[in-house]
Amino acid sequence: MEKLQAVMIAVGMIVLGASSVQADGDPDKGKKVFARCSACHATTEQNKVGPGLLNVVGRPAGSIAGYNYSAALRGSGLTWDEPTLDAFLKAPAAVVKGTRMSASIPKDQDRADVISYLKTLTAQ
Predict the structure, then answer these.
(1) Bridge partners, 60 (sequence order)
(2) What is the 3-state secondary structure of the chain?
(3) What is the pLDDT along the chain (124 residues), one digit of tens a residue?
(4) Smallest Cα–Cα separation from 111: which of 15, 42, 22?
(5) Domain architecture of the chain: domains with CATH
(6) CA–CA distance, 22 with 47 (Å, rounded to integer)
(7) Distance in angstroms (rounded) separating the CA atoms of residues 82 and 106
């Protein structure tokens, strides 16, 4: 059943427009768009309402120790790459049914910019 769910999630991401990831995302613009996300997410390892997003790109979903993820996200089998982030930020509940994240970023360019910004959040 879990494998079927993972396949359905992958198909859903494609259907939702994983191809809409913009290669030309602007991290400076993304930082400004991310300001509305900062009520729930830190750009560090700090967990708030949502998990900290330091090193999020490339990280398996639901994998930060000490954060109480939904069972749906923990068991999703997703990795936060650009297409997955794009689909999830566009419609979180459509990608991971049962996620607690309800906010979305509907505009393609805004998502591309935020993803470009998230890629800069790495430990130095």
Answers:
(1) 79
(2) CHHHHHHHHHHHHHHCCHHHCCCCCCHHHHHHHHCCCCCCCCCCCCCCCCCCCCCCCCCECCCCCCCCCCHHHHCCCCECCHHHHHHHHHCHHHHCCCCCCCCCCCCHHHHHHHHHHHHCCCCC
(3) 555 454 445 545 444 444 444 458 999 999 999 999 999 999 999 999 999 999 999 999 999 999 999 999 999 999 999 999 999 999 999 999 999 999 999 999 999 999 999 999 998 6
(4) 22
(5) 27-120 (1.10.760.10)
(6) 28
(7) 16
Cα 121 to the chain's mean position, in Å?
Answer: 13
Burial class (CB in 10 A: 0-12, 13-18, 19+), 83: middle
Structure tokens belonging to residue 107: 């505009």
Task: Note the pTM of the prediction, 2 decimals.
Answer: 0.81
CA angle 106, 91, 16 (to 5 degrees): 90
Q: Which of 18, 22, 17 is nearest to 116 (CA)?
A: 22
